[in-house]
Amino acid sequence: MIPYKRKESGTTHPLLPDLKRPRTSQPTSDQQKDSTNEIKYGIVLRKFYPPEMINERALAYNAGKIERPIETLENAISETQPQRDSILPGKCVVHWYKCDTRTMDNRALHLASETAAKHQLPLLCFYLISPQDFEAHLTAPIRVDFILRNLQKLKEDLSELDIPLYVETVERRRELPSRLIELCTIWGASHVYCNAEYEVDELRREATLTRSCLGKGISFNVIHDTCVVQPGCLKSGAGGALSVYSPWHRKWCAYLNEHPEQLDAFPPPKKNPPATLQAYPDLFACKIPDAPKSKQLREEEKTRFHTMWPAGEHEARARLSKFILERILKYHEHRNLPGGNATSNLSAHLAAGTLAARTVVREARDAAPSKRLTDDRKQGHSMWIGEVAWRDFYRHVLCHWPYICMNKPFKPEYSNIEWEYDLDQFGRWTDGNTGFPIVDAAMRQARHTGYMHNRCRMIVASFLAKDLLIDWRMGEKWFMEHLIDGDFASNNGGWGFSASVGVDPQPYFRIFNPLLQSEKFDLEGNYIRKWIPELAGIKDKGIHDPYGRGYAKIAEVNGYPRPMVDHKKARERALARYKAGIGRDTA
Description:
Its cofactor is (6R)-5,10-methylene-5,6,7,8-tetrahydrofolate; FAD. By secondary structure, the chain is mainly alpha-helical.
């Protein structure tokens, strides 16, 4: 194998402006807004993407006047199927790993293995690292590190089956498709399999590859595997897509109960022919590269995160089994308590693909008393499966309303809300110094562990968007840049929910009161004490509001700040701002 090295010069990494920069005034028109704040504050990365999409184009997607990327891929698959089916076997079959770094219950990998076994050919696997994709996708350094550690575990697992995993860095993201074709040509592969990703760029890339590979005599096969139920399968009574979770979830449960085979597991790949190791020694010998410089962790962080987040599908499956055996039964009672240990802590593995969503739903269903899927929120198994289903839901939304992948809210008129860009306030939020203990505890947890409890994600997101009225997309970006389970569809969906700009927005009701949330979900204050040592000496409920409940001296002496806003006044301001923005013309 000839080493593949291509370098790009003159590139820079876009950085968020210094948090001490003075606050800027609001734009006076949509044109100024689109060309100024989204770019100035790093919301739109102009190195990779065009300016924010205009509302008219988003509405055209809504009306079906513009072909959705998922439709572009589906058309490419259906129109090339006869030609791809006629391609004869080559010297090997290839599986392209992306967000599916596992051997078990991997549909595309299974199909690749079956094709290889049918024609008595070796199966080769590869993964292409794209530093520019990490940059464009805002991938957190902790997540990059987790991906690379998962690849090492995967390489070891595949080696036991005499299957190589070749990993290579491609500096320029636009050269990924050509490099894929080049590798297949070098190896003599005429059949390639991969699992679909549902973000806009990836759908368009795979649609292009489906067609362009044909010119090289390669059958490129994109397989639906990431979602438990394939996007587009669930429709409303009128035949359209569903944008409200509850009715969507009922249909999702009904569909899987009617088609239980959709949850069947795919076995791991078959062992390669004995001669594979001698035929492809360079592929077996390749090393997992280090993280790109812009995504590297400090040594102290590596030590901490490697202990907190062991990698690999075996760890993922062990966590799943332990959760089902020990905690799922009471999940519906304790899931909202950040100070406990009631959740599965599997989000990082689901995001990395070391565990299939299909696997967790199947095993939770099989452990449930009824052995069926329901929307019963008073039963632990059903409640947890319903939470996993949100992951599917947000991908279904992304496929039908692709402009949410382009810095637009679900309802285009919500882009007319006037946001603030106070970087001093934003910095206090990111650092966990807002003066609201539950908010600060959550943000400090995220900084230290790369993870945040889901209830806390809603609290801190609501606080940023509603109490501070700071552009929710700045918070969405921060989560992606710092969390180990950063996943575009789920992260965007969660921020859309909390900032009331996503599906089922409820802007006039969904304004969380941080104090009430704190008292309800961290009743004894143990979560706050763990992450805010300044308040550890407060032993009663005053910990939720030290300045309002007689503990100002303790807070001041220990350097804990006063609340940066008055929640009641902030709520009134948010209501007025939403009303004014939504009422404006969408054009």
